[in-house]
Design a protein that fits this description.
The chain is an alpha/beta fold. Helices cover 35% and strands 11% of the residues.
Length: 233
């Protein structure tokens, strides 16, 4: 008899990391409920990529939530601020860049937590990474630990002690190359993912933003061919 699957909520952006995360969760046998956001970001290509990943990996349900963080601005991803290009790799984590979206992961995790309560899911998956992150404060292990503690103080299951919420971060200690190797071994089609902060109108990656540089370097270090479609120089 087939073992019953457990529902989990997974944040799916359509990028390299979150698609690998989805493959990991499915590989563990979970019944995945994927959550993406149309939050006023610069482009919709990542939503298209998230839909492709959700379909390819057979999630139980995929919700695209609409919130508009452009009302606050404060980030190059939600305003007219310029996306930094060709920043030196060794200085990226020394400061919080303008591509940081204020409180984004807190907002996204809160939506995921609400859905997890409804589903009686005990795990939330998020693809944060402490090694290759671009200086974002809400990608750090201490932030995830604090959010998990809060989640268990703020939910019915936590208060009634009927089940503890765990925020799963399988990619946290991986390099970008490790993530790519893991995804490749699980059959992730990286050509169908998008990572660029500033792609062209057809979705081709700029090749110069922080995210593109991390992606390029990751494929090179992993020894895996980079299938990314880059815009002409």
């Amino acid at each position: 008899m087939t073992a019953p699957t457990s529902p989990v909520v997974l944040l799916l952006s359509g990028g390299l990391d979150s698609t690998t995360l989805l493959a990991i969760a499915k590989g563990e046998g979970h019944d995945v409920y994927a959550l993406s956001f149309r939050y006023g970001q610069r482009h919709s290509h990542e939503i298209d990529a998230a839909r492709r990943a959700a379909e390819a990996w057979g999630v139980a349900r995929h919700i695209v939530a609409d919130i508009d963080l452009r009302m606050f601005g404060g980030s190059a991803l939600t305003s007219a601020l310029e996306v930094p290009k060709d920043r030196p790799i060794d200085t990226r984590s020394e400061e919080i860049p303008v591509t940081y979206v204020p409180a984004r992961n807190t907002i996204f995790l809160s939506f995921a937590l609400a859905w997890a309560e409804v589903l009686q899911a005990r795990q939330i998956f998020i693809g944060v990474n402490a090694l290759d992150y671009s200086g974002y404060p809400d990608c750090r292990p201490e932030y995830i630990a604090a959010y998990e503690q809060m989640a268990n103080l703020a939910t019915r299951a936590g208060v009634e002690d009927t089940g503890r919420i765990t925020v799963r971060t399988p990619l946290m200690a991986m390099s970008k190359a490790d993530i790519i190797r893991t995804g490749a071994s699980l059959g992730v089609d990286y050509a169908a993912t998008t990572s660029c902060y500033d792609p062209d109108a057809n979705g081709a990656a700029c090749g110069h933003c922080d995210s593109c540089q991390l992606r390029r370097a990751g494929f090179l270090q992993a020894g895996v061919p980079d299938p990314t479609r880059y815009a002409a120089a």
